[in-house]
Structures are given as structure tokens and as C-alpha cells.
Design a protein that fits this description.
- With 215 residues, this protein is an alpha/beta fold.
- The protein is 43% helix and 19% strand.
- It has nine helices and eight strands.
- The longest helix is centred in the last third of the chain and has 18 residues.
- The structure holds pyridoxal-5'-phosphate.
- Pyridoxal-5'-phosphate binds next to strand 8 and helix 9.
- The site of pyridoxal-5'-phosphate has 13 residues, from strand 8 and helix 9.
């Protein structure tokens, strides 16, 4: 679908929840090249997401004349942390353990916006913190990692054909987000191409859409 079509769908979904809910779209460009990013940029899209440090670096180099807001959304290996920090992304959405937060904290020279990734469907194959540990871990990062500017939570919805399972994983993440609002959480990043409308209905205020925009 086009960016306009996506915006219209997001608009419809958010108005069904609350006219004050603002939903940010992160266009996930991992399936696509720099020219496609530039094209969407020219249509008005500003936030883009990548899940591999190497590819993020290539796109940043290709597009360094554009003030794009880059989000890192992938599993971050320890040996790639320095390289990622040098690229100075707008946000790292995929902090999935206290250890990773501490590593980034140690190497960062200034605070960086981050989200805590929650494995809300408890899928073995998925990265992310177990939901029961999320609140304690969030608080511990706040207390021990001054260079991690925690702004909220991120999750990938349940990989299922059963809408109820997907909704359950979004509702669980949103309930954790609500409990963290008094600790400064502002972002609830959930919803991808196949489930962003469901995610918005569960209170998401940031969606990460790849396939639907780039294919
Ligand atoms: C790839 C990816 C997306 C986008 O997925 P689509 O199904 O292509 O919309 C969103 N979030 C994360 C973490 C991803 O890796």
C-alpha cells in the first residue's frame, strides 16, 4: 500500500480508540534499498527502522544529506554496539536484557533513547524479556544506566493466525507500558504490517511497518 493509504488506515484505527491517541509510523526499510527510502522520504515519511547494524550503516551513508530519524529494531550483538553507537541512531528499540543495557550504557558517551523489548507471546524463537521481569528490569536500568534514556516498551505480536492470541500479547505489553508511565514511559511500540490495526486498538502509539509499505 502507499504511505497515504497506510496513514488513512492508522487514522481510522486511532480514532476508534481515542482522538487524542497519536500514532507514529516507523517505516521498516530492511527489505528495501536506499532509493526506496528516499522515495518515501520525499512523500513525507521521516522515521525509518533497520534491524542490522551493517545495513543501517550503508543506508545512513547513502542518505546522509537527509535528516532521517533512524530506529534500530533488531537483535543487537555485543560486538556491534560500538559501531551502532557511532551511527548515532535516534532510538534503539530492542534492549532485551539488563546485560545489554549495561553494555550500551558503558560504551555510550551520551544518553541514547531506548525501548525495552518484551517477549509478550513468550515465544522461544523470539528475543525480548519475559513479561514478568519487565517492570523490575526497566526500573533497574533506570537506576543503574544513566546513558540509557528509557522511553518505553516494544514488542512483536504473537505469531499466530488466532487474533485472540495476538491481542493477548498486545494487551499484556500495553498493561506493562501503563504501569511504567509513572517512571516516564511514553512509547508503546507494537504492530507491524499484518497487525498494526489490532495493535493500535490495544493502545500502541508507534507502529513498525515494513512489507506493507515496501513491497
Ligand atoms: C521486520 C520487522 C518489522 C516490520 O515487519 P513487517 O511485517 O514487514 O511490517 C517490525 N518490527 C521488527 C522488530 C522487525 O524486525
Amino acid at each position: 500500500m502507499t504511505l497515504d493509504e497506510l496513514i488513512q488506515k492508522v487514522e481510522k484505527a486511532r480514532l476508534e480508540v481515542n482522538e487524542h491517541l497519536i500514532v507514529k509510523i516507523v517505516a521498516v526499510s530492511k527489505y528495501s534499498n536506499s532509493d526506496a527510502v528516499k522515495k518515501l522520504y520525499n512523500e513525507g515519511q521521516r522515521a525509518f527502522g533497520e534491524n542490522r547494524v551493517q545495513v543501517l550503516e550503508e543506508k545512513i551513508n547513502d542518505l546522509n544529506d537527509l535528516p532521517i530519524e533512524w530506529h534500530f529494531i533488531g537483535n543487537l550483538q555485543k560486538n556491534k554496539i560500538n559501531k551502532l553507537l557511532k551511527l548515532d541512531p535516534f532510538m534503539i528499540q530492542s534492549i532485551n536484557s539488563l546485560e545489554l543495557a549495561k553494555e550500551i550504557n558503558k560504551r555510550a558517551t551520551k544518553p541514547i533513547r531506548c525501548l525495552l523489548e518484551i517477549n509478550s507471546a513468550k515465544e522461544e524463537s523470539k528475543e525480548g524479556l519475559q513479561p514478568e521481569l519487565a517492570i523490575d528490569t526497566y526500573n533497574e536500568i533506570l537506576e543503574t544506566c544513566p546513558n540509557i534514556n528509557l522511553q518505553g516498551v516494544m514488542t512483536i505480536g504473537a505469531h499466530s493466525d488466532d487474533e485472540k492470541e495476538i491481542i493477548k500479547s498486545f494487551e499484556l505489553t500495553h498493561s506493562i507500558f501503563e504501569k511504567l508511565q509513572n517512571r516516564g514511559a511514553k512509547v508503546c511500540s507494537m504492530g507491524m504490517s499484518s497487525d498494526f490495526e489490532l495493535a493500535i486498538k490495544c493502545g500502541s502509539n508507534m507502529i513498525r511497518v515494513g512489507n506493507a509499505l515496501f513491497k
